[in-house]
Amino acid sequence: MTSQVNICGLRVAVDVRGSGQPVLLINGLGGSLGLWQALHRDLMDFEVVSFDAPGAGRTTTPRTVYSMSDLARFVTRLLDGLGYDTVDVVGYSFGGALAQQLAHQAPERVRRMVLVATTCGWGGVPGTLASTLAAMTPIRLLSKRAYGLSVPLLAGTHAEADLLRALATERLNTRPSIWGYYKQLLAGWTWTSLPWLATIEHPALVVAGSDDRLLPLANSQILAAHLPNARILVQEGHGHYLLLNQESGAGEAISDFIRSLDLSESQTWRTAHVVSPDEIDESLRRHQPWSPIALPHTLWRRHWHSAMRC
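-> structure tokens emitted (310 positions)
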């Protein structure tokens, strides 16, 4: 059931449905509640909690800028207000970054974590220049024509392009405010998890599409290698929007990971694999799209990647 609650002085749109183990969904950049329809069908056995982030969907925009740490505090207060002590967290894209910050900042609130098509922030691997520019431009959400022009730049496959077009009405009807969108961008732009990823001990399933243009597969491999209790599941032939497409199988895999009381009983966990530093090196050599901001990311990553080998 969708309702509005007051959190940190904001009117926040919240959706709670089902019963069972509570699962918190954290959306991507500027995403709204309606984008979770495909995943809801795979999580029918759980009590699923989702919300529109500040400035997105039907949640009001804060007057001041905020950091990822501020957003993590916002999420903990949301959980307090809704009466949840501990949840499983599914973070998608920008929401995956926030899920990492939440697990770092309030580890007692998280049981297991799923990170989908996301990044460590600084030290990650930028996507193609075209996809990065498209994602950074909220103008694409102001009209159906502008949105349609952005679809080929963001979609990794023809199936994804069709999916994005089908989601156009939801995206345009519940688009974020311009300031809300840029405040999320700023929070992500000034953030990194590499210095403390190794301290997050929660079981973490990292899910990625092999053809992600926006946040290439190497980003997910970096996360899975630095997190001490993580495995990666790669969905071949899928791109950045695999979680919005039920046919990708990502939702079914996530459901199995959360449902299994013992991880050894999870087919998803057994299928996923541990990433080694050598695997990351090979992935970076094989595919790293050119970007004007690639060099500082590379230097930051090399520092922490070499520290992990010591």
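Residues 57 and 173 are 9 Å apart (CA to CA).
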